[in-house]
Inverse folding.
């Protein structure tokens, strides 16, 4: 089976980002949305895109157990191969599996030093070298700057980019930059910020920070598959 | 039989080896007057304790089979189910844990929480079994029940709270202080049978008050009435505390801790009180069955004895009374003279005798209603079968039985062993659906197959001990498979003319990989190129090639064969000729279809203290494993990986030594995957060598 081009193309490049990876080593990206809108689905899609390009992804979940995270991947993958008409899908799945590592922590017990320790377990034994990490469920509270700064150092040291999910609240009014106030004070640490927000009956994805050019038709999240697509598709 | 379900307790006693589980069970049976003398575990008196019925368990310190025994206390009926403490016997563990509603976790006050306590605790957690803890051996030197409570909290993550404190420790251990009733409890008489209640000794009162305060504080989270009483400064009655503790225990949010010294007959009666007051009765627990008509959708069972019967056979025993089947009734009632159905085989069973078992003795009864455990005689069924009333179509377990992944050749050492071995094998395959046996036609070796190395080892050991069959074993073999990777065509003419009637058949078509199935045969022949009576001969011929693949003689799976052309001869074509043609055609196509070897890949889940997570991942990685993820749960971590079975031999030993015996693992078949080329080459070399040796 061949991985056809459409499955390899990072859908976020349609927002105007220039490179497939969007983030360089040591850089941070954030996906902002209120709960239940599709942050995890979007990041899993991003992760699958990276995995399909044979790059290593470390998925860190502070909410869900390994099994549940695994199910997210299976589901989004199935939708993706169906959309891109890839057959048979099993061999592709088997090729990406060794590139993925899921780590889960209890949210109250997660800390950058702990992550570093776990990461060292993997890298020092040559088990896994992440090129991209996803941290899903980190609470963006007032004291988050310190751990984020520590994570930035860790990301640089391990030559990986990191995507975060950031939960915004529906009742909260965004600041002038379109970002929720709790996130604004750490936004300088992020190179790319993407927002998912409902627009009428559709869920739109837009770049709040980091893209160089204005893109064409808006990118939306398909509610049935949770996959990104152009609104005109 | 006391016919109130609320007064029934089905419990397990789980513990580390040597923490006194058997002694405790023995004492429970003595105080509940099921036995009249007490024996020691190691059998100083040559009799041995009552519950340890299988010798191998004693020697290895593991409980393999689960016996059930019955006793009464304070108007309550207690069924004690002996639970295996070893993770490898997955089916056995699942069966016994699902029939119990609550458990006593026995810990040694000197040894504390040891590795096996961690194992049994993990099992309880997995099956959501509520439990109370008993810190045993408080009379031993070095006893420190409070350290054990701390370990329960830190190592096992229990919200452990003492309900008693000891009066004296080590050789001065005299009794316990009950923090609920605030009384001292002593155990007088030769066998500790006379419980004497007294006032709390003055020097222990401050400590007792402090601990009671802590107890009430913890328990109040589970009862509004208790919280209200505290806030309004009303009297905190014993009932209020007990109800709150019971709520917390049933939710698995609290673990009440009791203490004593079973060997010295101290602390057993209050523990029995606690079983009746704190652990759940069958109706507190929700039991599910699967509906066969409805895609195995779960259905919640009702404990109404009047409803149609649903019972679960969880253990078979071959004893002095013939085949004994231990069952738990989940719904309805099973009674003498009933005709019921075994849903697996669809066979009708007439119930002759119904009994209640006490380790090796029994007592005849008339019926077993929902929520109760009992035994049946002469019933033809296997462990894990569901017995139902006519018209019900429910099963307690999924009917899916995985195929064995490992095999072992066994050779009886003498004639007597040969006879006994056959008996043992027949029995084991009935007891355990994942254990299979057959005779290899070529080598005439007896092959046993199962789910893992230890799984087979235990059966070999049981053969020796229970059936007196001395056997030698070969090396364990992984159940490899062969399959094809691409479409390939075949066109073969089978022609033989050696005087008399000849043989003629031509078979033409193609084969291609098929997913999710072992073999598909499709006939696309138009116009009778092969006469219809020989189509089945072709299919037979193709099928004959599946048992031993042309590449490495492993079974072939995942192949679709399509025939679309052929030829026949009016005189020389026959069933045999077309079978031979199909066999040769298969070999021809197979060689071109990119044959590969597949190996069983296991889903391995290791539960380890977090400090060893790194080394566990290293171990799995060295074994060609793909680590899927790690779950950090505070002091414990769970590492999940997919590892080829061939690399898992001896893993338990290595894991034990790298984690100071504190990590446990479970293993089940995840999938079959292609063997990497280098390994396939090694396998081929090995096979060639073996062939040479054999010839």
């Amino acid at each position: 089976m061949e991985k056809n081009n459409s499955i390899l193309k990072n859908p976020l490049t349609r927002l105007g980002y220039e490179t497939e990876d969007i983030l360089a080593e040591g850089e941070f990206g954030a996906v902002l949305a209120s709960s239940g809108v599709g942050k995890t689905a979007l990041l899993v899609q991003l992760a699958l895109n990276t995995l399909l390009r044979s790059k290593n992804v470390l998925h860190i979940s502070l909410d869900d157990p390994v099994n549940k995270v695994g199910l997210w991947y299976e589901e989004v993958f199935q939708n993706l191969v169906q959309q891109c008409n890839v057959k048979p899908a099993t061999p592709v799945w088997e090729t990406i599996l060794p590139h993925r590592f899921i780590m889960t922590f209890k949210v109250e017990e997660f800390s950058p030093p702990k992550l570093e320790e776990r990461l060292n377990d993997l890298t020092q034994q040559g088990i896994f070298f992440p090129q991209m990490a996803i941290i899903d469920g980190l609470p963006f509270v007032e004291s988050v700057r310190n751990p984020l700064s520590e994570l930035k150092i860790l990301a640089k040291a391990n030559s990986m980019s990191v995507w975060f999910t950031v939960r915004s609240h529906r009742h909260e009014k965004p600041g002038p930059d379109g970002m929720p106030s709790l996130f604004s004070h750490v936004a300088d640490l992020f190179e790319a910020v993407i927002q998912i927000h409902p627009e009428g009956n559709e869920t739109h994805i837009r770049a709040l920070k980091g893209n160089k050019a204005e893109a064409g038709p808006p990118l939306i999240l398909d509610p049935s598959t949770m996959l990104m697509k152009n609104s005109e598709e | 039989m006391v016919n109130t379900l609320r007064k029934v307790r089905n419990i397990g006693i789980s513990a580390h080896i040597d923490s006194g589980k058997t002694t405790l069970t023995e004492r429970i049976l003595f105080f509940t007057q099921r036995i009249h003398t007490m024996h020691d575990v190691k059998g100083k008196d040559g009799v041995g304790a009552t519950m340890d019925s299988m010798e191998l368990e004693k020697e290895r310190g593991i409980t393999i089979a689960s016996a059930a025994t019955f006793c009464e206390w304070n108007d309550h009926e207690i069924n004690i189910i002996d639970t295996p403490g070893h993770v490898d016997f997955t089916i056995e563990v699942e069966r016994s844990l699902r029939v119990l509603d609550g458990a006593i976790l026995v810990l040694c006050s000197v040894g504390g929480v040891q590795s096996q306590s961690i194992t049994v605790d993990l099992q309880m957690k997995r099956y959501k079994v509520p439990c109370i803890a008993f810190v045993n051996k408080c009379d031993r030197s070095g006893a420190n029940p409070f350290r054990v409570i701390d370990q329960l909290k830190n190592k096992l993550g229990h919200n452990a709270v003492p309900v008693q404190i000891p009066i004296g420790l080590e050789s001065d251990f005299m009794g316990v202080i009950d923090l609920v009733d605030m009384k001292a409890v002593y155990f007088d008489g030769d066998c500790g049978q006379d419980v004497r209640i007294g006032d709390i000794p003055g020097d222990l009162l401050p400590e007792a008050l402090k601990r009671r305060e802590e107890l009430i504080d913890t328990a109040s989270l589970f009862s509004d009435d208790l919280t209200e009483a505290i806030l309004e400064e009303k009297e905190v009655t014993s009932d209020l505390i007990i109800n709150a503790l019971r709520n917390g225990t049933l939710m698995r949010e609290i673990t009440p801790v009791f203490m004593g010294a079973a060997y010295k007959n101290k602390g057993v009666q209050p523990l029995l009180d606690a079983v009746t007051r704190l652990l759940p009765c069958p109706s507190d627990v929700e039991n599910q069955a699967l509906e066969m008509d409805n895609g195995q959708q779960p259905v919640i069972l009702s404990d109404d004895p009047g409803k149609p019967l649903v019972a679960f056979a969880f253990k078979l025993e071959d004893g002095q009374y013939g085949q004994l089947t231990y069952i738990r009734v989940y719904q309805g009632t099973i009674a003498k003279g009933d005709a019921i159905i075994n849903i697996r085989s669809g066979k009708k069973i007439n119930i002759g005798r119904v009994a209640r078992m006490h380790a090796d003795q029994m007592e005849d009864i008339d019926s077993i209603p929902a929520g109760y455990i009992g035994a049946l005689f002469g019933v033809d069924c296997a462990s894990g079968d569901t017995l139902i009333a006519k018209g019900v179509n429910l099963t307690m377990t999924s009917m899916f039985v995985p195929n064995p992944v490992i095999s072992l050749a066994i050779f009886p050492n003498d004639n007597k062993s040969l006879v006994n071995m056959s008996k043992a094998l027949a029995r084991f395959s009935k007891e355990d659906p994942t254990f299979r046996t057959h005779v290899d036609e070529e080598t005439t070796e007896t092959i046993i197959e199962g789910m893992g190395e230890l799984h087979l080892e235990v059966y070999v050991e049981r053969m020796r001990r229970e059936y007196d069959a001395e056997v030698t074993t070969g090396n364990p073999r992984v159940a490899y498979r062969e399959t094809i990777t691409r479409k390939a065509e075949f066109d073969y003419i089978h022609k033989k003319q050696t005087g008399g009637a000849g043989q003629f058949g031509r078979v033409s078509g193609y084969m291609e990989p098929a997913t999710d199935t072992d073999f598909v045969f499709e006939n696309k022949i138009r116009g009778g190129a092969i006469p219809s009576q020989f189509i089945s001969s072709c299919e037979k011929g193709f099928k004959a090639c599946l048992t031993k693949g042309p590449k490495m003689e492993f079974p072939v799976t995942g192949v679709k064969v399509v025939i679309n052309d052929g030829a026949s001869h009016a005189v020389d074509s026959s069933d045999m000729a077309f079978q031979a043609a199909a066999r040769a055609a298969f070999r021809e196509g197979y060689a071109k279809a990119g044959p590969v070897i597949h190996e069983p890949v296991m889903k391995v889940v290791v539960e380890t203290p977090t400090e060893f997570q790194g080394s566990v991942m290293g171990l799995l990685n060295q074994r060609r494993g793909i680590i899927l993820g790690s779950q950090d749960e505070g002091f414990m971590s769970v590492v999940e990986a997919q590892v080829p079975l061939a690399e898992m031999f001896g893993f338990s030993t290595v894991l034990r030594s790298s984690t100071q015996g504190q990590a446990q693992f479970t293993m089940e078949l995840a999938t079959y995957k292609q063997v990497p080329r280098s390994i396939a080459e090694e396998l081929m070399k090995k096979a060639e060598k073996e062939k040479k040796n054999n010839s």
